[in-house]
Amino acid sequence: MDHFDLRDGVLHCEDVPLPLIADAVGTPTYVYSAATMVRHAEVMTDAVAGAGNGEPLVAYAAKANSNAAVLRQLAGVGLGADVVSVGEYRRVRSAGIAPEKIVFSGVGKTEAEMAETLAGGLFQFNVESVEELRMLSAVAAAQGRVARVGLRINPDVEAGTHAKITTGTADNKFGIAYQDALAAYAVARDLPGLKVQGVTMHIGSQLVSLDPLQAAFAKLGALIGALRGDGHAIGVADLGGGLGVPHGDDQPDPASPAAYGEMVRRVTAGWDTRLVFEPGRLIVGNAGVLLTRVIRVKPGARHPWLIVDAAMNDLMRVALYDAWHEMNAVRPSGAQATYNVVGPVCESGDTFAMARTMDRVGAGDLVVFRTAGAYGASMSNNYNSRLLTAEVLVDGGRWALVRRRVDLDDLAGVADPIWR
Ligand code: LLP
């Protein structure tokens, strides 16, 4: 469910007509609905309420959309954060997310990142190797602090999603192999400066079926038992993120958050741990659109080329993962047409859809890419010396520019370097 609807024939975000935003800030522009993201945060929080010991920690995966205004909205409804760099850590802290609600994931945390986040405070480091454990131990010992740790386990489960967003198989770089887990915990126990409190996993993104998640969680449950048998005090289980979002009528609908919560309750009953969740896309995916203008329609061999002013640098998901984003006219006439939809960037990968039947549009018309709130702006870049896309947040009848279109000067590099 989202808050992008036609009113009097014009697509609105909440109570704001999208042409008003296009006229004010230009295109392409990401437009986010505060009501949608807040609702999804509440849906997720409600879905897992009562699961595990104490209050579950819903730690929003900031990588999905780390705009400061978005983070501020989510902080306001009580979400924590899953961060993967010190940059994300700083952003979520300045958005008002408390240290005790932050987990730090990622295979390549540097010593400097560990030092800053440990000093600043966080709930848990999700550690992905014995080598990382040793580095974190040294950092903690040097500061005279204790780092709380969960070990990320790679359960070797096929998640049933695109290969590039699958993270829990033996061929992925993530986590500690399931069969090596007991040995890794034994190492961790003997290292100074660490308090080993948890187990963590994340098997992939845009998951449609609950089956792989359930299989992975079952393995994690068995591991918790084995770890306790070895004398480890495991009080936290971080189940990662990954639940997909609907992408329109032509795409498979993922399991609902409620069904996910029910499955979690069933599988984790008896674990006797606090639960942590790291949803990203689920919170912000359908809370955003990429608003773009048709530059021109050019004849093509099979279908006309619909050339819009957004490109692969603004929304990389199609080029990277063959993702499917629904496209709608902002002022649909009711007529349909079939297009190949492309951007202006000079490579054939800059294609949003081939043979897509959608609202008929012409030069100058506004179009939106739906479900662009997650991994849209946060993955954008300035390839072809294009300007980083602006971002707008809508809240009821008001809107605000929450990232200006970055100046070319900021991005250009230095023509006359200061040599050293
Ligand atoms: N936790 C960890 C450790 C992760 O690596 C991720 C996503 C998440 C949580 C959040 O997953 P979500 O709930 O959003 O599925 N750029 C890709 C998605 C990459 C996801 C990377 N990790 C895309 O556009 O589909």
Automatic annotation (TrEMBL):
Q: Where is the Orn/DAP/Arg decarboxylase 2 N-terminal domain?
A: 55-284
What Gene3D superfamilies would the database entry show? Alanine racemase, Lyase, Ornithine Decarboxylase, Chain A, domain 1
| A Gene Ontology molecular function term of the record | pyridoxal phosphate binding
* Record flagged with keyword Chloroplast: no
Q: Identify the metabolic or biological route this protein is part of.
A: Amino-acid biosynthesis; L-lysine biosynthesis via DAP pathway; L-lysine from DL-2,6-diaminopimelate: step 1/1
Alphabetized NCBIfam families for the sequence = lysA
Q: Which named protein is this?
A: Diaminopimelate decarboxylase
Its ancestry begins with:
Bacteria, Pseudomonadati, Pseudomonadota, Alphaproteobacteria, Sphingomonadales
